[in-house]
TrEMBL record:
Residues 53-159, 343-451 form the Plastocyanin-like domain. Keywords: Metal-binding, Oxidoreductase. The keyword Metal-binding applies. It comes from the Bacteria. PROSITE patterns: MULTICOPPER_OXIDASE2, TAT. PANTHER family: MULTI-COPPER OXIDASE, MULTICOPPER OXIDASE LPR1. It holds the Pfam family Cu-oxidase_2. This is Metallo-oxidoreductase.
Amino acid sequence: MSFSRRQVLAGLAGVGVLGLGGTAVRYWLGRPHDLATHDYQLIAAPLDVELVAGQPSTLWAYGGQAPGVELRCRQGDRLRVRFINQLSEPTTIHWHGIRLPIDMDGVPYISQLPVRPGEHFDYDFVCPDAGSFWYHPHTASSEQLGRGLVGPLVVEEREGNAFRHERTLCLKTWAVDEQGAFMPLLVPREAARAGTRGRLATVNGQPRPVVDLPAGEVVRLRLLNVDSNITYTLNLPAAEARIYALDGNPVAPRGIPAKGLRLGPGMRVDLALRVPASGELALRDGPLRLATLRAVGAPAEASDWPAPLPANPIAEPDLQRAELLRFNFEWAASLADPADPVYWQINGKAWQSPAPGCAAQPIARLRLGGHYLFELRNLSQYLHPIHLHGMTFKVVWSDRQVIEPWYTDTYLLGKNETARIALVADNPGLWMFHCHVVDHMETGLMAAIEVA
Ligand code: C2O
Ligand code: CU
Ligand code: CU
């Protein structure tokens, strides 16, 4: 595959670095007057933030905040983002969960060249599905996601939805110490296990914030796990809440499981929360409080639960004629090079980072338009949120739980679990297929699937 640098400008002197009155600002985010076009200008650059009070940490931020600025688009419309790299290293943006053409998928050397410091790249694609999605780089992921390059992307339902209020809450636990200094983002012995865990849990970049919500109203909470390695076990004790969508795709509304809802890295849930008439609720990860949800204002009159969200236009796989492919996710025996550790593999192969000029060797080749059933086997005792680019799949079976099928881009494969997912291979390209525990994908648990 060859690439042109058509999007690259020589230098970007004067672009967005001078604010009104000539004051130097490090960021700007422009949105034109014509909202129908969903045009954004998004800069990635270092940003000093006090995650720990009085102790600035140098994060990497999209649009001057970490997690990054919320991008919004309407289902079926075109999202255009001029991305400007003001970091000191190359990067790209991947649009997690969006079914888009391969050249907009943001994987360096597979879908585009890396965007080097000072360069820009124009992302331009239609968002076919409504829901809660997100964006992040797809290179040096431990460092780049770990330092804050993650952000929400909300695609609004084409014909609207029954919610009158909504809030986006991005969950991330930072690997910083008491002085706000970054700790190692990938610790080899942790990467070989569940993944390196950060220390400071935050919601929208704030440790244990108080989030004000309108008293008595039903609010759509978009909870996004933008953390690199942690699977949160979400619960809201004593709250009236129902699950409306998983990973952007609607489900028949249901309660939160008594044991909590496990949300792996990269996964999202849309909840309907009935805010109490007064008082507070706790949003928790297991027993730990992540945020306080506080009812404010005069309580609204009780209303019904909103209607379910409309389904996304995803092709229905036909299980009768689907071809079965097997994928084993397991520990890698070879610990060859300590400088470039490999701890994980898929079907006996560990992914080597794509390099210039080398197209990846796909682990599977799918026929365009073909129907497929993937059997995912976890041969380890650690969780693997298995994610596929470019196509949305249907979860159909598991040996560990009764599956009421749903569509998603990520399936959280439990310890020693075997599960089956089905899809129609309707998007041509070379698509990444990987575990979204960043420590796992960085140490081998990644592959590419070709659809042609
Ligand atoms: Cu969030 Cu390869 O993806
Ligand atoms: Cu993705
Ligand atoms: Cu994993």
